[in-house]
Amino acid sequence: MAGTESEESFKVTDRRRRDDADEPERAVEIPKIETPKESRPDLHERRQAAPQAAPPPPASDRNLIGLFMMLAQSAMMALGEAPEPGMGKPRPNPQEAAALVDLLVLLREKTEGNRTPEENEVIGELIYDLQLRYINLTKHLAKPRGS
Predict the structure, then answer these.
(1) Rounded distance between C-alpha atoms, residue 43 and residue 41, angstroms
(2) 106 occurs within a structural domain
(3) What is the count of structural domains for the chain?
(4) pLDDT averaged per 10 residues, the chain (length 147)
């Protein structure tokens, strides 16, 4: 295929504005590169060789409470109270924790009137608990050393 006139290509033209208006537009032709068919594994073979991803959880397991719990777990890790998988001692990140608590508060506001009583209870308790933990963390971090 290399060197034939019928080879497919596409043209790239740089049309960005420049301070130097005297410079003409530059065009570059980039040839289309075709991988020989014999070097590409068959789709079926690639699917066999690729690691299988875990199937998504059933729709009954994907719910609002699961989302609340996932965000709360991330907030706990950011508060330094839950160990991160594969990491050593957790290190507090108050800014991340505050952002996650704010996200839960936003979700509570935006889903108002569309939650079940159980979801109302869970999100209310999670936000309350995380806010108290955040306050305790910031008090602890604000204490002068040696006190």
Answers:
(1) 6
(2) yes
(3) 1
(4) 56 63 59 56 53 57 87 93 74 93 97 95 96 92 70
